[in-house]
Amino acid sequence: MPDATLTLVGRGVRLSRRNPDALVTAMVLPVMLMLVFVYFFGGAIDTGTGTSYVTYVVPGVLLLCAGFGASTTAVRVSEDMRAGIVDRFRSLDVGATPILAGHVGASLVRNLLSTGLVVGVAFLIGFRPEAGAAGWAAALGLLFTFVLAVSWLSAAAGLLARTPEAASGFTFFMMFLPYPSSAFVPIGTMPGWLHGFAEHQPVTPVIESLRGLLLDRPVGDAPWVALAWCAGLLALALALSGALFRARTR
Amino acid sequence: MPGTTAIEAVGLRKSYGDLRVLDGIDLRVPRGTVFSLLGPNGAGKTTTVRVLATLTPPDGGRARVAGHDVVAERARVRRAISLTGQYAAVDDLQTGAENLRMMGRLSGLSRRDARRRATALLERFDLAHAADRPAGTYSGGMRRRLDLAAGLVGEPEVVFLDEPTTGLDPRSRQELWRVVRDLAEGGAAVFLTTQYLEEADRLADRVAVMDGGRVVAEGTAESLKSRVAGHRLDVVATDAAAYERLAAKAGTLTRAHAAPTADPGPRRSPESLTLGVPTDGGAPSVRALLDALDPDGTDVARFAVRTATLDDVFLALTGATTAKEPARA
Ligand SMILES: Nc1ncnc2c1ncn2[C@@H]1O[C@H](COP(=O)(O)OP(=O)(O)OP(=O)(O)O)[C@@H](O)[C@H]1O
Ligand SMILES: [Mg+2]
Q1: C-alpha B203 to ligand 2 mean position (Å)
Q2: End-to-end CA distance of chain A, in Å?
Q3: Predicted local distance difference test score (pLDDT) of residue A99
């Protein structure tokens, strides 16, 4: 029933809007981090890509946003499970999928805003991508596929956590994942034991694709690897959240 | 169509681990009537409601709601019912109107109809003045009323209300009673749980009393009431010695002045020097009881006449002494 999903996305967006603290954090924190990276560390980092550091780092900051926005989903889902509202939705024959999709949809909307903000500020401080319309469309399409997958994974985490506080612990993990990747520094500069993880974790192909697409450079098979990761994570999240929802509502 | 069955349960059983929460529940509720499930904390009221509202599958037994099986035809049952749970299920961050419009949309109303229905319900539940305020700013009673309104958005055939009047002030409670009667007159079946005997009495066509996962009595409120004393006279003794004298007299006297059947006898709580004696609550019998208990007018410090509580019903109906002290109406 797409009607129910749309209604619940509307609800999710309203709940996000009325939670100004969380919203401001989700908007401002990535911008702050970007400024810190560019102005404090940027001078010392040689990315070896021949572009300014800000241009190098923008895709990484966008993924930080994605992780952050998605992790809020875990908290919201967990809050819903604790309150009686899920029982009420179920008694209206609204099941797990629309309930979770409502929160995931809100996460996509939040990310749309934070992405716009980060890109806007990045332009002000010297971000100069070379992508045409097609490159931008592909980059944003991939970014939001990734946001979709991690948001749904985050919804599953919200079902797993017994309390919203525990669910918010998930924030840390999602925020951390971009660091051991090529998001902020080239993987080659990391200690050898990290290479294996950094090269093969899901964030890296997404970053490489975004960077390549935005700079209009050859991307190889990175976008396909990234899409495969997203599809796999999404399938896992769907199966996991379905099973967890049934277990939580016996 | 009054007369046809809205809810029918046969031998419902449900356990959580080793705990047997429902132990063979049989119920029948016709359309157009109000049915009340009474019971102390932990009796299994909420569990019964959850099973009937398809939220929890039973371990055994069968139940049909609005003509459909609660397990095999869950979706059909859900389209015909609404549930207002024991704890408020509204979004604090949405306004009253937004909460109701959302429920309307989820029940399948168009945007327009949802808006119209929300406005009407806000009016009916005396919340129009707070329609555009976040529900988080509502008082406890206002939240409860919003929660009840949310359960009625879809104009359900069978309405489940789990302790709907807990936390409502007397005026709101009466308003809710009126709504419940209107619903039944409109042809819906209303299934409500309560801890208040008075509420079941005023509202319900039939009452079932539940204890320890079983239905221990079922019938009209009148028939149940005729089995217990309607009121209790609580006397507080002046001191411990006076309490002993009063208790001794109460044991022999109550038979003469109390309600005729299934008399539970006096209730003793020596710690607070309080003795409860069944009575019909009328001035002549209360006066006579006081005179008989305390002929010299020296042993009783204070007295109060109370409506029979669930405790009294349980003592009378089951002879159990384990019923916990319930909240009073
Ligand atoms: N999900 C559950 N897991 C374990 N035990 C449960 C669960 N739900 C209910 N119980 C137990 O079942 C018993 C009956 O609970 P129920 O909520 O049905 O009682 P109730 O009559 O509604 O009580 P109250 O008046 O306090 O609301 C209680 O002992 C409760 O602890
Ligand atoms: Mg209960």
Answers
A1: 19
A2: 23
A3: 94
pLDDT of B227-242, one tens digit each? 666 678 888 999 988 8
Inspect the interface and report whether the beta carbons of A11 and B90 lie closer than 8 Å: no
Decide if B115 contacts B122 (C-beta within 8 A).
no
| Count of CB pairs separated by less than 8 Å, A with B | 71
Whether B56 and A250 lie within 8 Å, measured CB to CB: yes
Per residue in B141-195, pLDDT (tens digit) is 888 889 989 999 988 899 999 998 887 888 888 888 888 998 899 999 999 998 8
In angstroms, what is the C-alpha Rg of chain B? 22
CB A85 within 8 A of CB B91: yes
Find residues 10-49 of chain A whose CB sits inside 8 Å of chain B.
Answer: 10-11, 14-15, 18-19
Q: What are the chain A neighbours of B90 within 8 Å (beta carbons)?
A: 85
Select the more confidently predicted residue: A100 or A130: A100
Q: What is the pLDDT of residues B11-38, one digit of tens each?
A: 999 999 889 999 999 999 999 999 999 8
pTM as predicted: 0.80
Contact call for A15 and B93, based on CB within 8 A: yes
Q: Return the residue whose CA atom lies nearest to atom 24 of ligand 1.
A: B41
Q: How remote is the CA of residue B86 from the centroid of ligand 2, in Å?
A: 6
Over the stretch A70-108, which tens digit does the pLDDT of each residue have? 778 988 898 888 878 898 999 888 989 999 999 999 999
Domains and CATH numbers, chain B: 5-225 (3.40.50.300), 230-307 (3.30.70)
Q: Which of residues 82-101 of A touch B (CB under 8 A)?
A: 83-85, 87-94
Report domain extents, chain A. 2-248
Cα torsion A13, A18, A21, A27: sign = positive
- With contacts defined as CB-CB under 8 Å, which chain A residues touch B134? 18
Q: Which of B52-61, B101-110, B243-252 has the lowest mean pLDDT?
A: B243-252
pLDDT confidence of B308, banded at 50, 70, 90? low
Contact A64, A33 (CB under 8 A): yes
**Band of the pLDDT at B327, cuts 50, 70, 90?**
very low
**Ligand 1 neighbours (beta carbon < 6 A):** B 16, 19, 21, 39, 41-47, 86
Mean pLDDT confidence for B246-259: 66
Q: Mean per-residue pLDDT for A14-29?
A: 85
Residue among B57, B81, B87 minimizing CB distance to A84: B87
